[in-house]
Amino acid sequence: MLDSTATPLKTLLRRRKPGYSLEAPFYTSPEIFAADMDVIFGHHWLFVGVDPDIPEPGDAMTLNIGKASIFLVRDDDGEVRAFHNVCRHRGAPIVHDYKTTVGNLVCRYHSWTYGLDGKLLAASHMGEDFDASCHGLKPVHVRSLEGLLFVCLADEPPEDFEVMAAKMAPYLAPHDLKNAKVAFEKDIIEPGNWKLTMENNRECYHCAGNHPELTVPLFAYGFGFAPEELDEHERKEAEDYDKLLKASHREWESCGFPSTLMEHLDDMATGFRTERLPLAGDGESHTNDTKAACKKLLGRINDPKHGALHFWTQPNSWHHFMSDHAVVFSVLPLDAERSLLRTKWLVHKDAVEGVDYTIENLTGVWDATNDQDSELVGYCQDGARSPAYEPGPYSPHTEMLVDKFCNWYVNRMTAHLGR
Predict the structure, then answer these.
(1) Which of 133, 168, 223, 264 is the most exposed place for a label (fewest CB within 10 A)?
(2) Do 130 and 217 reside in the same domain of the chain?
(3) Where does the record place the Rieske domain (predicted)?
């Protein structure tokens, strides 16, 4: 709860006005941030990486989710496992590097040794009565959805992940991320609350004036518009886009690429949205010239003009899958007013840098967009601190998905905390 001088969190949740942004404490309060980490990041499925982050047995990757340090490791059978990064002896971390390769998992402090399945294999000087079977590493729930890795810290994670996975697998499978590689990744610290980072992503109202690189391959009409504000020429363009979208969906689905809109952003615990959209210009990829960034296409795709599939998940990710590469994003809160945005660019595992792709061309659009968005998030964080701030109305034409993110957040917090 908030301190005695502040409005209680339950009261703020109850009085949230649909169609409006959240009240300032949701973006600034350390107490609400702590509740977010408990309820949202402690009890829901979180996107944290991709199968190619740990492609071989013994490969491991660490990350922090609030106060929880965890690591993912591929075991000898090729399965991905996740554990709390805490030795069962005195609590020292087992894995210290962001990415590494191990044989067994050995604590640096007293050499307690664990297998890749988390079982304690060796612990010297512990006496005859010591039962090693009771001191294995504490597991974390982990799932791979066609190469996208999700974890949940709760003892009992939301069961509807399997519903999402069943619906999304046919959309993602053609891109075959398990046979891709991470060509480049980059972390930036956004100067804003994690919800502001997610809200900014959930709309393109701001795109035309702030993202010159991103908007090159995008159709303006793919992100909402106000029909009553269009002149005759613009109305014709919108109608043409609608026809193109429907024709593209028919063509792509006839080739085995599910494409039509599927949206469950605020009616599931594991909220998500997906749709495959056509690209403007030469229409091949998210690049400055809209041409494919990599000569080797992903998976079983044989035509670079299969559009761009987007996939969003609540509470912390968005992704773009093109014919030639994929870009995946995760948001991990650091404190009430800072968030880690981690972006990874993936290409076919056999693609050769300098021959099939260049890092500059591959990353140019989203690297610039991330920096621009980070600045915008900072502006909103500055505004939320002002005593003049009050919740403002969302555009019903271009910010409806921001509203759904806030609906999801309020509903999940309320369900956990009770009214």
Answers:
(1) 133
(2) no
(3) 45-151
Give 166's contacts (C-beta < 8 A, 6+ positions apart): none
Write out pLDDT tens, residues 345-373. 999 999 999 999 999 999 999 999 999 99
Any residues with CB less than 8 A from the CB of 247 and at least 6 apart, and which?
Answer: none
Q: d(Cα 217, Cα 219) in Å, to the nearest integer?
A: 7
Average pLDDT over residues 274-299: 93
For residues 216 and 340, membership in a common domain is answered with yes
Phi, psi of 348 (to 5 degrees): -55, 140
HSE-CB at 4 with a 13 A cutoff on CA atoms is 0
* CATH code of 117's domain: 2.102.10.10
Task: Let me know: does 341 contact 187? Beta carbons within 8 Å.
Answer: yes
pLDDT tens-digit readout, 220-251 = 766 666 677 778 877 888 888 899 999 999 99
44 has a pLDDT exceeding 70: yes
Q: Do 107 and 89 contact (CB within 8 A), yes or no? A: yes
pLDDT tens-digit profile of 67-79?
A: 999 999 999 999 9
* Token pair recorded at residue 274: 């997906």
341 and 192 belong to one structural domain: yes
**Residues 96/99/103/107 CA torsion (nearest 10 deg):** 10
Q: Beta strand 148-152 with 59-65: parallel, antiparallel or unpaired?
A: unpaired
Could you list the beta-strand ranges (E) of 173-325: 180-190, 262-264, 272-277, 308-313, 317-321
Angstrom distance (rounded) from CA 306 to CA 259: 10
Domain extent, residue 214, equals: 166-417
Residue 395 placed within a domain? yes
CB 213 within 8 A of CB 373: no
Helices vs strands, H then E, count in the chain: 9, 17
Q: 80 pLDDT exceeds 90?
A: yes
Mode of pairing for the β-strands spanning 262-264 and 272-277: antiparallel
Say if pTM beats, i.e. exceeds, 0.90.
yes
* Residues 71 and 86: beta-carbon distance below 8 Å: no
Count of domains in the chain?
Answer: 2
